[in-house]
């Protein structure tokens, strides 16, 4: 490896020897592509013409009036495919083609990354297999259908908790067997180096756009940026360009049924450092090092690990990580739909719930009446709305039976 792949103490590459040549090949391809004007131009063209970037910032006037403080959304739900996942799969698919790979594999939790990878398989004419926990296959039936419609094979994983971590295990086993002609299109900023670096760089377009757009619309930087954190790719994408600014940075984890219940996905609050899926980072594991079961109403936030850059940001104190419960996220899910006509992914609803809590605190500390919320536009809260809620409609219908 040419780089250590470390963020402070975290990251690295703890993998079987058989995977090292593939990781070294991927790192070399990524470093060369980053310097190649033709690669950058092709990615920029696809982000604009295929993904539909730049996505806008939306000031939520009704939600802001409700909370008493301005709240704006960075609209990754408007990216083609319905989530931020498209940004980085375009980059990885271009790298796979550059390396001469003929097949794509991926893992997925909420299904958004699986859909994005299936899109790449169709776009680039590559056979695509997507590993998905059997529980998530049940929870995300619409996304499973979308993947199959685009020609991908969805492989349910019955082992373990039948969720994302088990899907990653199976994808890594497949890659170790077929590494010569297969690219593993990992979906988040976790896993062994160089994945956390390259996924983070490809997602950085979110924060780069948001910083420029916010300054043009409101002036300066937001008072706070928030995003939900499971593996952490949309959050790192939004955070990176705000790290040098004065903006507060908040990562919102899945509080599930409450941190005291043990049924949550709050890795950075309740976990300790360890090794999972090839990287050293905060994990939810027991005293014997066994990964513990997690829970979230959102299939995308129940990963028991987190990207190593988040672990470094936590230890450095540059970002604060806290959680909202399932109930709080569901209330925010419904409130955003009712006040703004925007239905967020359940993952993103966690960030909206966090923003509402923060907005009320800011308003209370400033002694600001709700009607005066526009006086603080330059100190608005910017929320990364990572995806749209179409995929969660069946879950929402069960949770809100009174709506029919």
Task: Characterise the protein shown here.
This protein is of the alpha/beta class and 404 residues long. Helix content is 44%, strand content 17%. The chain contains 16 helices and 14 strands. The protein has helices at 20-35, 37-49, 61-67, 85-98, 112-124, 134-139, 141-149, 164-178, 195-203, 205-218, 233-239, 267-270, 308-316, 326-340, 346-366, 393-399; strands at 6-7, 10-11, 57-59, 71-75, 103-108, 128-133, 153-157, 182-184, 224-228, 248-256, 272-276, 279-283, 320-325, 381-385. Strands 3-4-14-9-10-13 form a 6-stranded mixed sheet, sandwiched between helices. Strands 7-6-5-8 form a 4-stranded parallel sheet, sandwiched between helices. Helix 5 links the parallel strand 5 (103-108) and strand 6 (128-133). The chain starts with 5 loop residues before the first strand and ends in a 5-residue tail after the last helix.
Describe the structure concisely.
By secondary structure, the protein is of the alpha/beta class. It is built from 16 helices and 14 strands.
Question: What is this structure's SSE topology?
Answer:
Blueprint: E1 6-7, E2 10-11, H1 20-35, H2 37-49, E3 57-59, H3 61-67, E4 71-75, H4 85-98, E5 103-108, H5 112-124, E6 128-133, H6 134-139, H7 141-149, E7 153-157, H8 164-178, E8 182-184, H9 195-203, H10 205-218, E9 224-228, H11 233-239, E10 248-256, H12 267-270, E11 272-276, E12 279-283, H13 308-316, E13 320-325, H14 326-340, H15 346-366, E14 381-385, H16 393-399
Helix pairs in contact: 2-4, 4-5, 4-9, 5-7, 9-11, 10-11, 14-15
């Amino acid at each position: 490896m040419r780089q250590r792949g470390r963020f402070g103490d975290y990251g690295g590459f703890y993998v079987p020897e058989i995977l090292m040549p593939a990781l070294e090949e991927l790192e070399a391809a990524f470093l060369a592509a980053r310097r190649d004007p033709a690669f950058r131009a092709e990615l920029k063209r696809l982000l604009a013409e295929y993904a539909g970037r730049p996505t806008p910032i939306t000031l939520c006037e009704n939600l802001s009036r409700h909370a008493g403080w301005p709240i704006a959304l960075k609209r990754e739900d408007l990216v083609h495919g319905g989530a931020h996942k498209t940004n980085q799969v375009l980059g990885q698919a271009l790298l796979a083609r550059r390396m001469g790979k003929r097949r794509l594999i991926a893992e997925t939790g909420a299904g958004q990354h699986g859909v994005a990878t299936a899109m790449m398989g169709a776009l680039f004419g590559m056979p695509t297999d997507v590993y998905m926990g059997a529980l998530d296959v049940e929870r995300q039936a619409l996304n499973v259908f979308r993947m199959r419609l685009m020609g991908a094979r969805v492989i349910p994983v019955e082992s373990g908790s039948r969720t994302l971590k088990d899907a990653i295990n199976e994808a890594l086993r497949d890659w170790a067997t077929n590494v010569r002609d297969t690219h593993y299109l990992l979906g988040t900023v976790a896993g062994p180096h160089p994945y956390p670096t390259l996924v983070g760089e490809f997602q950085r377009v979110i924060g780069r756009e948001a910083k420029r757009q916010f300054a043009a619309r409101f002036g300066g930087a937001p008072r706070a940026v928030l995003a939900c954190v499971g593996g952490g790719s949309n959050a790192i994408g939004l955070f990176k360009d705000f790290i040098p600014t004065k903006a507060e940075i908040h990562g919102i984890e899945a509080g599930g049924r409450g941190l005291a219940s043990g049924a949550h996905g709050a890795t950075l609050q309740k976990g300790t450092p360890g090794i999972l899926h090839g990287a050293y980072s905060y994990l939810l594991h027991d005293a014997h090092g066994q990964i513990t079961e997690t829970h979230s109403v959102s299939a995308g936030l129940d990963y028991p690990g987190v990207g190593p850059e988040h672990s470094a940001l936590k230890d450095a104190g540059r970002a604060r990580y806290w959680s909202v419960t399932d109930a709080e996220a569901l209330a925010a899910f419904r409130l955003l739909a009712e006040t703004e006509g925007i239905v967020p992914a359940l993952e993103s609803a966690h960030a909206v719930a966090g923003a509402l809590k923060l907005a009320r605190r800011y308003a209370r500390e400033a002694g600001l009446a709700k009607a005066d919320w526009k006086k603080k536009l330059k100190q608005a809260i910017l929320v990364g709305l990572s995806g749209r809620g179409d995929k969660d409609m069946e879950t929402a219908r069960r949770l809100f039976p009174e709506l029919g």
